[in-house]
Amino acid sequence: MRLLSVSRVSQSRTRSSFLTIRAQTSRTFSQLHSNPERSSFGIAFDIDGVILRGRTPIGGSPQALKRLYSECGTMKIPFLFLTNGGGVPESKRAIELSELLDVNILPLQHLSFMSLMQVVQGHYPFKTLVAGYENKLIVAIGKGEPAEVMSDYGFKKVLSMDEYASYFDNIDPLAQYKIWEAKTTFREDRSLLPRYDVLSERVQAAFIVSDPVDWSRDIQVLCDILTSGGLPGQANRHQPPLYFAADDLEYQAAFPSMRLGMGAFRIALEAIFSEIHPLPLEYTSYGKPNSFVFKNAEAILKQLQQLSCDEHDVLHNGDAVNHSFRTLYMIGDNPSVDIKGAQQARSPWLSILTRTGVFRGEINDPEFPADLVVDDVEEAVDYIFRRESTLGNQ
Ligand SMILES: [Mg+2]
């Protein structure tokens, strides 16, 4: 059982209880700003259904985020975005978020002794697999720029599904009925053309980087790859490894009701694969709610904590002193992803559930109850500042 030590909270409340904290007009930001000590708390924000709906900011997110910066514009409270979404490199997403939210989100920066970043997407853990597949042929599936994402991580022999499928005549029997055309701009840059024979080389692994766009083509070609041991049209062989960036069944996009996510695609692929192959589909899913995602977020927040405390010392002296957080807040809209993940990660994580996305309930989620339920992200940040002020932090 996890408790919040604020005066409004019953000391005996259970996880299924909830708080309704009304926004107060008094702000504690000035208190935080006046103290130069490093922050003993950090914040992880989910994006879809918390910060944005589609590309539109929601829940007072720009105002809430601005409170995490000092008056001169430097980051005062360490925070990052922890999303299961993706499809573009983290640095590119940071620039896009900066524009949409009118705050300065750090793109990936490599310093001599650390890497700083503020956007961690579902596919970020794929980076840990580079050593095993660096020079092996892999296929990257999903919206956006899945091959660029993987190249950015260090994979050297990667083709997007659009690119890969284009080598095989008639591999998609429905292609002639599709009114759109897969992007083929990669062909114009001859330096990007593979220097190997795609038609005879086996795919060593498939990565679902982001939400697949053309489900019928992608399921068809994935089944071809996975049943044939990596070479469509060949006889049955052992299935190559398959990796998913996340397993969200649904998520909040611009449409009023939930949209099917990567988990829904996984269920569809798995159901079909099991009908045409004697063995069940083998796969690995990353993203929230896996505990390692929260461990990694904590490590990144510690680096940002050093930056937010004394940027000059960190940048010039590299004194990467390791200070633990008293509290890390996960603000999300999806109980089975954001809240479950924070619960599994345990201390110092506390979970805050907003009503701006997947969760629409009045009280709390019965299966994965959050430590706090609020209307929106602005109310969540306001609560955090008041709680931290009560605790005497900063
Ligand atoms: Mg969400």
Automatic annotation (TrEMBL):
InterPro entries: CDP-alcohol_PTase-I, HAD-like_sf, HAD-SF_hydro_IIA, HAD-SF_hydro_IIA_CECR5, HAD_sf. One of its GO terms (biological process) is glycerophospholipid biosynthetic process. Gene3D superfamilies: HAD superfamily/HAD-like (3.40.50.1000). Transmembrane segments: none annotated. It comes from the Eukaryota. GO terms for cellular component: mitochondrion. It holds the Pfam family Hydrolase_6. This is Uncharacterized protein.
